[in-house]
Amino acid sequence: MISRFFKNNGITRKDVNLGIGDDGAVVTIPDNCQLVVTTDTLVSGVHFFPDMDPRALGHRALAVNLSDLAAMGAEPAWISLALTLPKADIHWLEEFTAGMHEIAEYFNVQIIGGDTTQGPLTISVCAKGTVPTGKALTRSGAKNGDWIYVSGPLGDSGVAIEAQKGKHELTPRHLATVKKRFEYPSPRVAAGQVLRGLASAAIDISDGLLADLQHILDLSGVSATINVDKVPVSDVLKEALTPEEYLPYVLSYGDDYELLFTVPEDNKGMLEINLKQYGVDAVCIGQIKGSGGEIELLNNEANFEFRAKGYKHFS
Asked: Is 256 labelled a binding residue?
């Protein structure tokens, strides 16, 4: 089935020596580069609604993996797909693969293999990319005094999920906008490559701002102060909900796939100039301060109490 829907479809990269059809793929890694590999699994009813549009699902399944590569500063190149299906629904597969091919073509990514099996709808994607040797971004480089940035507004995806569950009543326009942010996330691939050599640490926001920031703090051995009032929020959220309603989504819900990164003082000016060339208006939301892995929250310079920390599997 992988061969039927993916072989001879989509882009063909010159560095793919052997693609779909054999027991494994063969690719050529550019000189002076390292391979970056990431894998994400999406499970129906856990990571997406069972009736989600298959074209959007194809886009999302690939986008969340490309976001991981972006957080490492990598250039995406190749994808493997493991697809578990309740039944062989040809129309569903055509739409799903169309959504995946569209984003793959946009980012010059080739699907080089995979597997299909029968069972509950589950999508596992393994994405591979390259980064110049020694230049990969990690979560462990944040230093005292570094500034903390996010690459775009947070909270829309969480509101979209809960609105579809009936928690919030949104206008059709507001619902359509936040739903698109969830179904068609835009991985910050170009921004990730700009961050190489400028950012000290980076991660993509999948589990929530505070939870993902905590990963950086734990691996870097530092603490942070976050100005809640500085965290970017979309105009739609500001129109649809009160701050008390949307802040939990902004701080802890996740599924935003923006980049969260730290930058030394000396690199701030160059970073902001370079990112704006790619249409990314990154926002400084706080600073690394001290050690111990603690997060201090301020709202208009006053202490801000907030308990929820983000999504955890098996919690």
From this structure: no
Helices assigned H by DSSP within the chain: 2-6, 54-71, 90-106, 156-164, 172-183, 189-195, 209-220, 235-240, 243-252, 268-276
> Of 91, 106, 132, at which residue does a domain stop?
132
State yes or no: 204 annotated in a binding site.
yes
For residue 40, say whether it is annotated as part of any ligand binding site.
yes
Is 39 annotated to bind a ligand? Reply is yes
255 among annotated binding-site residues: yes
In a domain, 287, yes or no: yes
161 in the same domain as 101 = no
The verdict on whether residue 68 carries a ligand-binding annotation is yes
What are the tens digits of pLDDT across the range 219-249?
999 999 999 999 999 999 999 999 999 999 9
Establish whether 171 is an annotated binding residue. Answer: no
The domain in which residue 51 lies consists of 2-132
CATH number of the domain encompassing residue 101 = 3.30.1330.10
The pLDDT tens digits of the residues spanning 61-75 come to 999 999 999 999 999
